[in-house]
Amino acid sequence: MKKQILLALFSVIMSSILSAAPKKHIAVIYAQSVDSGVAKELQCMTKAVLDDAISKGINLKYTILDNKRNAMETVKISEDIAQKNQYDAVVGTIFSSEGLAASKILSPKNIPFYVPVATHPEITQNKPNVIRLLFSDEKQAAILARYTAREVNPQRVSIITNVSKDYSIYLTEEYIKKIKELAPSIKIYKNRIVEGQTEFKILGRNIQKQDPDLLFFPIYGDQSAYLYRELAGHGKKYTIIGGDGIGGRKDWFDIVGETSKNISFTFVRSWNKRFDKNTETTYYKQLHKKYCPGFKHTFMTVTGYDITRILTKSVAKNKGEKLHQTSRNLNYDGVIGPVSFGTDGQMNRALNLFRIYDNKLNFYKRYE
Questions:
Q1: Contacts of 282 (CB under 8 A, 6+ apart)
Q2: Which positions of the chain have pLDDT values less than 50?
Q3: CA distance 232 to 157
Q4: What is the pLDDT of residues 65-90, one digit of tens each?
Q5: How far apart are CA 95 and CA 35, in angstroms?
Q6: Closest by CA position to 97, among listed 118, 121, 125
Q7: What is the three-class DSSP state of 161?
Q8: How far apart are CA 171 and CA 197, in angstroms?
Q9: Please, which residues have CB within 8 angstroms of residue 247's CB and are 6 or more apart in sequence?
């Protein structure tokens, strides 16, 4: 009896100590005032994981900050976070331009920054405070260049670059650099587009004149869909490769309509759309059903879950060091697969190649 009383007393004391300890304050940065499906998916699973952690007694709280899906607003938010010094970690941002803006401001203050999907290498380069879930554009450019040289072996490559986006500019430059190393005889044509552009008749005619054996799309989903639709109207065969910005979401197919039998389109994805049998996948499905039933299982819901689970597990295991230091030592087998961090916060893993045909997205193969 005395032993039970002592145990109960110890439990009460420990509970009091934990409740008295300051809560880890997390800033969540996603678009609120702009209608963005991907932001809503990411945010829903981020909130789900945070709310679930709080309900289980993990000592944290969070505040959602609206970056309006643009880099300038992200700069303002990040500067405010850095100046007030009231947050223990930041999670969020979608595009590389947003992630770059935040990382440049948060890194000098050594504020842990958890990035779900942005892939520009400078987000993590020489920034040990940044934890990124995905590979960098440097890696995908190298893999796409190898794929080009080994499996397509073209003589002429036409590249479409969105000069408004850091992601597109960097991926273009890095791909060209790698191609020149692997196959210097390939002739490269550079084509420029800008953000918001959806009419591609003139660009389509220029591509016809260039007569490429391969087109490279280092651009985001909607623009790639509009350009695909334009090329499909040419009635000739095209081979296209793309970066992970393509996505292959339902709205891509809505824009395209019918896919063309004349176009072979292969692009990179981080998640192979398959659920492995592990503890995190089971838990993800439970939280998705409870908190986010209005959303399908997508790359965004999965990455939103994994990056936030890494954060909450780090809060639970933290012993006073910075959260990102705890995260780097985690053994985490996520929904997207085993997570380990190499130098400069880069993920160590092969990439998934998908192909679009028969009006759907089809897994092709893993590629190193």
A1: none
A2: 10, 12-19
A3: 18
A4: 999 989 999 999 999 999 998 999 99
A5: 15
A6: 118
A7: strand
A8: 19
A9: 220, 221, 269, 299
Residue with tokens 């002592």: 6
Tokens representing 13 are: 């004391």
Q: Provide the b/e sequence for 49-76 (b: ≥16 CB within 10 Å).
A: bbebbeeeebbbebeebebbbebebbbe
Instruction: Compute the mean pLDDT over every residue in the chain, rounded to the nearest whole number.
Output: 90
pLDDT of residue 37: 80
Query: Could you tell me the pTM of the whole model?
Result: 0.85
Which two tokens mark 260?
């063309």
d(C-alpha 94, C-alpha 97), whole Å: 8
Q: CB atoms < 10 A from the CB of 190, how many?
A: 11
Question: What was the pLDDT predicted at 300?
Answer: 93
What is the C-alpha separation between 195 and 156, in angstroms, rounded?
Answer: 26
pLDDT value at position 192? 98
Q: Report the interhelical angle of 166-182 vs 96-106 (nearest 10°).
A: 100
Q: Which two tokens stand for residue 224?
A: 């790639």
